[in-house]
Specification:
Layout lengths: L23 E2 L5 E2 L2 H12 L8 H21 L9 H9 L10 H11 L12 E2 L8 H13 L6 H4 L1 H17 L6 E5 L2 H20 L10 H5 L2 E6 L5 H8 L7 E4 L9 H13 L3 E8 L11 H10 L3 E6 L23 E5 H4 L7 E5 L18 H5 L18 H10 L2 H23 L4 E3 L7 E6 L11 H18 L3 E7 L2 E7 L7 H28 L2
Parallel strand pairs: 3-13, 5-6, 5-7, 7-8, 8-9
Antiparallel strand pairs: 1-2, 4-10, 9-10, 11-12, 12-14, 13-14
Helix pairs in contact: 5-15, 7-15, 8-10, 17-18
Length: 545
Amino acid sequence: MTLLPDVEEPRADFDAGTGPHAQNTSAQGTSRLDFGSGVELALAASNQLFNARNAPRYVAQVLQGVNAVATKLERTSQPFTGVGPAEMKRRVEAVDLERPLPDTAAALEELQHTYLRDAVYFHDAKYAAHLNCPVVIPALVGEAVLSAVNSSMDTWDQSAGATMIERRLIDWTAERLGLGSTADGVFTSGGSQSNLQALLIARNHAVARLRQDPANEGLRLPLLLEKLRIFTSVDSHFSIQKSASMLGLGFDAVVSVACAADHRMDPAALANALATAHNDGLVPMAVVGTAGTTDFGAVDPLAELAVLAGAYGAWFHVDAAYGGGLMVSNRHRHLLEGIRLADSVTVDFHKTFFQPVSSSALLVREGAMLRHVTYYADYLNPETAARAEIPNQVDKSIQTTRRFDALKLWLTLRIMGADAVGALLDEAIDLAARVGSVLATDDDFELAAEPQLSTLVFRYRPLTADGTRLSEDAADELNPAIRSAVFASGQAVVAGTKVAGRHYLKFTLLNAEATLEDIGEIIALLRSAGESLLAGSTARAEAHA
């Protein structure tokens, strides 16, 4: 059957007379939906169900949505409009959700004002803020397919082929990371969930060893957790602390380890922290290395950390949510040296594999360790199914219902290939190096550290009339204001962070089509905003003198 994109979309006529609040007032004054109008409403609603009968309508409506986004993209010349929260709140709250619109075209027209016009567009070359990547088209094709078929990845009888595709991609990723033939894993919603699951496994693994001590016989889990500690660098992701809290260990169970000048975890500092904890009667539960810190893109000395973790029997987890894309890099994959020694690894495909959110995975070197999150339910994944080797993915996951996000990566690899994805990341890394050289020689800016992946941390701190730098305190006040002013203009989006308690700006560059000239224009915007803010501050000071 040929599906024509120009199929006329019938109007549902969900108005006040036939909609969910249509009324029929009886003699007693009660209001209810009469049987006839209820049937009419159900028949109209059934026209919107995705099935064989409605396939032409599905094509027509989805194409309208695709065309709306494509048209908006073609007409967008900057990453943001600068709209404020109050205005957006007003527009969205003005929508009457109890009164449906007549058709998809009307809904998409309304969506222009409530979303599309004022969305932040990561594809734009002047978006340089967070770890949001422009996405590749094969992944968008995958997104369209997976959302329509709507497989749920918890059990084999809901996912079939999808299960095998996800498992094959897990094996492929494990092979790229060098984790060995017994490795396994599962897709997750993102790096925070992957880190949580890794630390849950590490916690349960540590507790299982503690229970072997006769002195701990009969102790409930909360008492066994008291002595467990997690070691990670001061620059690691906040999800490590958050996971510790969620796992019942508390925020203070995370020991922050100092970094060297290059923002990589200092192995000597880790060795000292582990020894101190051990001597104090504490139990090193896990060491978390980072392959690509959020601010500096730093990759910890993974091989050295693995040796130290092993010496204390601690689980070694590597958070490669950002740096995981290096596994397909053509020029920088050596930066992941030592990752094969990890007990578990987090990889976010929706960062450096250019996939739409969400697409992440947790890998473990020994697949048997996934048993620490396994729970059998007779109505879903009975233990008999596991004994029969029925591949229920829920046995490996802390999620139950889960999208087939692996399809996006699958189609990306089948259409583009891993080397092409790596080439996109290499371009972003090389651009960051060039921008770093520009900032390092610009008297108006200070670069906090040499770029390592595709992030740059810097601040506007120009020379004053007497030849000295703007004071630290003045720079602290100025840089967040610069960021806010540029964001409000909509012409560019940059991030902010703190280094040693001081305010800095940050570029996160993941757009392979962005050029040095594009980033130069952002730098010019930052400079101009800084000059204007300083001039206004000087004028106000003189007025009050």
